[in-house]
Amino acid sequence: MRFFLKIALLFSLLSSLAVADLTFPKLTGRVVDNASLLSSSQEQQLTQLLKAHEDKTTNQVVVVTLPSLQGYTIEEYGVELGRHWRIGQKEKNNGILLIVAPNERKVRIEVGYGLEGTLTDKIAHDIIQEKILPAFKRGKYDQGIENGTSAIVQALDGEYQVTRAAKTTTHHKSGSDFITVGIIAIIFLSIVIESLLSGKSSSTRFKVAAAISTGLAAIAYFIFFSFVASIVVWIFSFMQIMLGGSTTGGYSSSGGFSSGGGSSFGGFSGGGGSFGGGGASGSW
Amino acid sequence: MQKIILGVVGVIVALIAIVIVSHINNIPTLDENVKAKFSQVDNQYKRRADLVPNLVATVKGYASHEKDVLTQVTEARAKVGQMNLTPQMLNDPKAFAQFEANQGALSSALSRLMVVVERYPELKADKNFQALQSQLEGTENRISVARKDYIAAVQKYNLELRTVPGRWVAAIFYPEAEVKENFTATPQEQSVPKVEF
Fold this sequence. Notes:
The complex is a heterodimer. By secondary structure, chain A is of the alpha/beta class. Chain A has seven helices and five strands. Chain A has helices at 2-16, 40-57, 74-85, 121-137, 141-156, 171-197, 204-242, and strands at 31-33, 60-65, 95-101, 106-112, 275-283. In chain A, helix 3 links the parallel strand 2 and strand 3. Chain A starts with a helix and ends with a strand. Chain B is built from eight helices and no strands. The longest helix of chain B is centred in the first third of the chain and has 38 residues, at 26-63. The A-B interface holds A 21-25, 70, 72-73, 75-77, 79-80, 120-122, 124-125, 168-169, 171, 174-175, 178-179, 182, 185-186, 189-190, 193-194, 197-198, 245, 275-281 and B 3, 6-7, 10-11, 14-15, 18-19, 21-22, 25-26, 29-30, 32-33, 36, 40, 130-131, 134-135, 137-139, 141-146, 156, 188, 191, 193-197.
């Protein structure tokens, strides 16, 4: 019996570990200034502006400056980053990224599915051309970012429209639910079979009762260990995030004891929204 | 001894059953995902086609004698409009290739139009044209993203059908399921972002 439990434990641990294919910058807040274009007081002001906007409208706007686009176009990078951080609320997809890559001299406003009707490509294009690029061309990145951010918030103020459906459910999630149920079934079945077969005497009814109660006990043990395993995995992911780098999507649920979701340390996290490539780019 | 063997066999059978059962739901789920992603591709292509009449009219206002390229765009757009998408197309290589070819022809015609536009600074400065241009750029980007999503969805679905144990499950429960067509990735699409810091 112990042997099966150990296998079940291992299985549940493996299915709970997050699979991280790509690494992106950490979502440390609403302003991620990795290219160091803003002073800390400017960062704070922008953060407050964006937080107030989210409180009012649930739209999530994030400003991110990057030292490098790693060889990708800002359009490619933008949509992947928006999806990875899951900016915007899950059902509304109302997220916006203002991305500045000063070394590649590219800027982009990435608009989530749900805001494409409000912050149209044309408006995004105009904001970039009229509010952001003039300052950038003079080398005043902080001013350009501030102008652009307030223009974005103004354009969004008070309205949002859902124009596209939310993401479809993923294969991974239902797979791991099945694994959990499957493991429980295996344990139960094997215990029951073992008990039934290992009998010296006694009536069949007694044997079946004993077998089932042993099986239920095994499930109880399993749930307990699964819970412990989930906590271990959670601690593991927590440490991984603290030590730098970030996982995609966190950890999957194992019997409903742990919650999935992106990195949520530091008070601000993506609401689960997605992006489809809307918005506009500019360069200088 | 016999009891142990029986027990082990029982467990193995249970294991196999669980693996198969957990895969039964994959095929329809992935199939629906493929269809949804293809609808999205279709949406974005339609959106692009819808921009064309306005674009052609605006360009004509400044460059009416560029008849060749304007006709090409209009005709390419007409051809695209004639082909309506159905889910069956996803299994039909010829129809799928035709769809891709039509859209590709419109893409080429539009690029040629943009090259011509470069020679007309007044047209480029026209506000209406600029609006259309940003919409077109945005739509092309959306098409690109939608295609990538579709490619990923089809890969998952096809893999499920072609690898074990998905193929056994399909053989038993979904005999009509077929491998689906995929886009031939353009050079830009071939670089799947593997961004690392």
